[in-house]
Design a protein that fits this description.
Blueprint lengths: L1 E4 L5 H12 L3 E6 L15 E5 L17 E4 L11 H16 L6 E7 L8 H13 L5 E7 L2 E2 L4 H12 L2 E5 L5 E2 L2 E2 H10 L9 E5 L5 E2 H11 L5 E5 L4 H11 L4 H11 L9 H6 L6 H13 L32 E8 L3 H9 L11 H13 L20 E2 L2 E7 L4 E6 L5 E10 L2 E10 L1 H27 L1
Parallel strand pairs: 1-2, 1-4, 2-3, 4-5, 5-6, 6-11, 7-10, 8-13
Antiparallel strand pairs: 9-12, 14-19, 15-16, 16-17, 17-18, 18-19
Helix pairs in contact: 1-5, 2-3, 4-6, 6-10, 7-8
Amino acid sequence: MKILLTGATGYIGKRLLPILVAQGHDVFCCVRDKNRFYVPKEIQNKITVIEVDFLEEETLTTIPKDIQAAYYLIHSMSGSATNYDELESISALNFVQRINETDVKQVIYLSGIVNDKSLSKHLSSRKKVEDILQLGSFSLTTLRAGIIVGSGSASFEIIRDLINKLPVMITPRWLNTKCQPIAITDVLEFLTKSLLNPITYNQSFDIGGPDILTYKEMLLAFAEAKKLKRWIFTIPVMTPKLSSYWLYFVTSTSYKLATALVSSMKVEVVCRDTKINTLLDVNPMTYKQALSRALTKVEEDKVASSWKDSLVSGRFKSNISRYIKVPKKDCYIDRRKMQIQNREFTIERIWSIGGETGWYYGDWLWNLRGFIDKLYGGVGSRRGRTNQHNIHSGDALDFWRVLYANKEEGKLILFAEMKLPGEAWLEFKIINNTLYQSATFRPRGIWGKLYWYSVLPFHGFIFNGMLNKLIK
C-alpha cells in the first residue's frame, strides 16, 4: 500500500519509517529539505522522498493522488515562533485540502491527551489540529499520548539530565502532577496496528502504559534504574517562568520547549480509558521496563532518533542546501592544514567530535562558550550528539548543526546555532593526505567584526591544538 508519512525527519517519523517499509508498504516521506533527511542504504530504494512545506500551500502538489493512508506527525511547539499554534492550524488546513484531493481512506494523527478543561497552549493547539483534521473527507484516527519514554525522546533526555546532574532538587509543585507515560515501542505498535484498520476509523483513543505516576515518581524511578541516590523537594513558590528557566539551564532543552513543557505539566494527562489495548491486542510495558530499554539503547549507542536532531531544537530555520557551500565573500576565515598520518584514524576522530568525546583540545573553553550562549538564551552545548560515532546531515552537535557529512569524501561541515552577531561555519576536509580545517565567520555589522577580533586570540590555541589531536 502507498502510505504518506509527514514529519519523516522527526523523532516518531524516523522510527516509524523502517517499520512501514518492513511491512511492505510504499512510503512517501514528506520533508522540507531533502539534504537533511538521512535514509539508511538498505531502504533507500524502497521509499520516495518529496519536499513539502505545509505552511506553503503550493508545495503540496508534490503529494501523489493515489496514496491510501497518511500519518500526520507535524508539530511546532518547540520552535522559536510564539504563534506556533497558528502555524499548526495553517499546516493542518493545507494538509486537509490537499488530502481531500487524493485517494486517502484514513489519516492517523498522533496528538496529546486532552482530558482537562483548563488546557495548556500546547495541548489546546493539539486539540484544534484534531478538530481541523476531522473536516476532511477521510476517516480520522487520533491517538492521544502523554509522556513518551524512549532513548532520545525529549521527556527521557530531560529526566536523564536532571537525575545525572542534580543529587538534590528543589522543584516546583507541578512535579506532583499525575501522568501516564508510554514507551516509544508501544506508540509505534499502536500507530502501525491502526493503519487501515476499520475498527479505529473516526475515533480518538488515549494510549498509555499501565502506570499512573507523578513526575516526581518518574524522576526517582529513573534514579533507581541508574542506581543513584537523589532527593527531591517540592515548593509552591516557583512560578512557571522560574520553572522554565530551571529546566532550560539544567537540561538540554530549549527555552521555548521548556516553557511549553512547564505549561503542559501542570495539567494531568491520564487516559480516560484503555479500550484500544483490547481492540488492537497491545500490552503496553511498564514505565520501569520502558526506562530499562531506553537506557540499554543509550549504553549500546543505538539511539534510532532524537528530538534534538529536529530543527526546532535549535536556531537553524532555513534549508540546509542554502548553507552547504561555505561563503568567502565578506567573511573572516581561519584556515589551517596539516599532513595526516592515517586517513582512517583521522576520519574516525572527526566523526566522533563533540558530545561526550569533546573537542580534543581546550574543552573548558568550548564549555565556557556554551555556558555563555545559554546565558544569552542560546542552545548551549548540552545537546551533545545522538550517536557517539555516527553523524548525518541535519543532526545537532553541541551548539552546531551538521550541514554535510560524507565519510568517503572525508568532509564535514558544521553551522553554528549559538547566538552570534553573524553566521559561522566549521569545516573539515581531507585532500591528498592533508587535513584542511577552516573556521568561517560572516559578521553582521560592527558588532560582528568586534566579536571576530575578540575571539581571534583564542583561535591559535584552540584550532591548532584540535588539528594536532585529530591527526596524532
